[in-house]
Automatic annotation (TrEMBL):
One of its GO terms (molecular function) is oxidoreductase activity. It comes from Allopontixanthobacter confluentis. SUPFAM superfamilies: NAD(P)-linked oxidoreductase. Coiled coil: none annotated. It comes from the Bacteria. InterPro entries: AKR, AKR_Detox_Biosynth, NAD(P)_OxRdtase_dom_sf, NADP_OxRdtase_dom. This is Aldo/keto reductase. One of its GO terms (cellular component) is cytosol. It holds the Pfam family Aldo_ket_red. Residues 23-288 form the NADP-dependent oxidoreductase domain. PANTHER family: NADH-SPECIFIC METHYLGLYOXAL REDUCTASE-RELATED (PTHR43364), OXIDOREDUCTASE YDHF (PTHR43364:SF1). The lineage of its organism: Bacteria, Pseudomonadati, Pseudomonadota, Alphaproteobacteria, Sphingomonadales.
């Protein structure tokens, strides 16, 4: 039976000339001492991960902490000259506590500027709108993104949690290509496969940044019948290649032809290093579909 080759460790970010690792490290739980944060960043870099994902909302606990993850990273940059240049750095904006979403020109530009100030950097390699603002016209959003690119504040733009129709609408008003989309995707969340977003990503050459690739921890610690079945299907492959179940889950996601980039959320250096074993797995179609069937809970038609 034909094999599905693993993605290369490095590849272009969508249609851009920015080279990123096929695994990313996410900072939604990035907190604590700067020295500890630096150790985690170095663990990712030493594992071959150069793609780092944060957002202005990371660190917000419902009442305060907005921008804290970015500020911590900015402190680390200030204390370690040259570190920023080793990274492809992505951030997001458009969620304004306590209001839900704001993609007006004034807010998005101010959000980008605030992120740059907190991060102590002059530019972001990638900046994404975190959630779609239903009250914003895509033509206006496109003009804002173009303005930020022309000013050199962002090298490339993308979206997060947008529907396929929202992506198409925004792209229709842009004279540059969006380079990324960021949906939830894991062996326990198949939505982008089923709603056409992955097909659109392949059509538009969008990098797919998959958040929560371990199903919010449920793949490592299954509790339901469905989760246990998915874990067993992953384990059968993980044991064959002598890797962890979580590495198998990352690899399963990466095997889709849209080539999703799983965003690793672990704040443990050993688990970050373990994640790159995902490259060691070569899936057969049977094995890959076995995980899909376990997740759907029904046989293929």
């Amino acid at each position: 039976m034909s094999k599905i080759a693993s993605p290369p460790p490095m590849r272009p970010l969508g249609s851009s000339d920015i080279q990123v690792s096929s695994l990313a490290w996410g900072m939604w739980r990035f907190e604590g001492a700067a020295s500890d944060g630096l150790a985690l960043i170095n663990a990712a870099l030493e594992s071959g991960i150069n793609f780092f994902d944060t957002a202005d909302i990371y660190g917000f606990n419902g009442s305060d902490g907005f921008g804290d993850a970015e500020s911590l990273l900015g402190t680390i940059f200030a204390n370690n000259p040259g570190l920023r240049e080793k990274m492809v750095l992505s951030s997001k904006g458009g969620i304004m506590p306590p209001l839900p979403y704001d993609s007006s020109d004034g807010y998005l530009i101010s959000a980008i500027d605030a992120s740059l100030a907190r991060l102590k950097t002059d530019y972001l390699d990638l900046w994404m709108i975190h959630r779609p603002d239903i009250l914003a016209h895509p033509q206006d959003i496109a003009a804002t993104l173009r303005k930020a690119m022309d000013a050199g504040k962002i090298r490339a733009a993308g979206v997060s949690n947008f529907t396929s129709a929202q992506i198409v609408a925004l792209q229709s008003f842009l004279d540059v290509q969006l380079v990324s989309t960021q949906p939830e995707f894991s062996p326990l969340c198949l939505t982008p496969i089923e709603n056409g977003e992955f097909d659109l990503a392949m059509q538009y050459n969008l990098a797919v940044m998959a958040w929560s690739p371990l199903g919010g921890g449920r793949i490592a610690n299954p509790s339901s019948t469905r989760e246990t079945a998915v874990a067993a299907a992953l384990d059968s492959v993980a044991q064959r290649f002598d890797v962890s179940r979580t590495a198998a889950a990352y690899s399963w996601a990466m095997a889709h032809p849209a080539r999703p980039i799983p965003i690793i959320g672990s704040q443990n250096a050993d688990r970050i290093a373990e994640a790159v074993r995902a490259y060691d797995i070569m899936w057969t179609r049977q094995d890959w579909y076995d995980v899909l069937v376990a997740s759907r809970g029904e046989n293929l038609p």
